[in-house]
TrEMBL record:
Ranges for region Disordered: 1-31, 64-111
Biased composition (Basic residues): 79-91
PANTHER family in UniProt: PROTEIN CBR-CLEC-135-RELATED
Protein name: SH2 domain-containing protein
Bias type Basic and acidic residues, positions: 10-20
Organism, scientific name: Wuchereria bancrofti
Biased composition (Polar residues): 102-111
Length: 223
């Protein structure tokens, strides 16, 4: 009697466990891969998980709609991120173009300087109404050893008629600061303006124009 009752109880527990297992779906324990619909499939065993209902929230149709919405949302986020990045880059470029005018002045000044030259060589460099800065070396040097230790900084100017003039500079010291002044003695008695930097001096004379009245212009007061 006791053995029979015990067997019946064991069978009942086994049936209950089986029913619980059948009513609680779980992922498959064998190898599977995800197909284009998001299902886990095993072609060899001809199984698919989960078995989606034809209608409702978990149906294949609803799954596809959710997937499309997710893809659309992801694409929108990607486009928004790209737009914000482009706007930041444009703002940085705008800040650079408006925030560093001294650098542009420096570049323009550098194109005026032509290094160590003889006075006669400037004829092949200058065009009418142009000027260049250079360190003047002797006209004739048989070797590099004859290069002087100190050479004067000069400004060479070609007039509208093609004549070349060479001007020196005056350097003034006020405290710890240096100031520059172009020396036009010989052609101009008036003192020239004094500048805090060579770049400022160059920009001033590049924008300076004298109308001769005969249809020609000069930067400096030539005859």
């Amino acid at each position: 009697m006791t053995d029979s009752s015990s067997s019946a109880v064991d069978k009942l527990d086994t049936d209950n466990d089986s029913n619980k297992s059948d009513s609680s779906p779980s992922p498959p324990s064998y190898a599977v891969f995800e197909d284009e619909y998001g299902n886990l499939v095993n072609p060899a065993l001809n199984v698919i998980w989960p078995m989606r209902p034809r209608r409702g929230r978990y149906s294949l149709k609803e799954y596809r709609k959710q997937k499309q919405r997710f893809q659309k949302h992801s694409e929108q986020r990607r486009q928004n991120k790209k737009s914000r990045k482009c706007m930041k880059q444009s703002k940085r470029q705008l800040d650079v173009s408006h925030g560093h005018p001294p650098q542009q002045t420096k570049d323009n000044s550098s194109s005026i300087y032509v290094g160590v030259q003889s006075a006669s060589s400037l004829r092949f460099i200058l065009q009418p109404t142009e000027f260049r800065l250079f360190y003047m070396r002797p006209e004739s040097m048989n070797s590099f050893n004859q290069m002087p230790v100190k050479m004067p900084l000069m400004l060479a100017y070609m007039s509208s008629s093609g004549k070349i003039y060479n001007f020196g500079f005056k350097r003034h010291e006020y405290g710890s600061e240096s100031f520059w002044q172009l020396d036009l003695s010989g052609i101009e008695d008036r003192e020239q303006p004094i500048f805090r930097s060579m770049s400022a001096l160059i920009q001033y004379y590049k924008s300076f124009v004298i109308d001769r009245g005969d249809g020609k212009t000069e930067i400096f007061p030539m005859d």
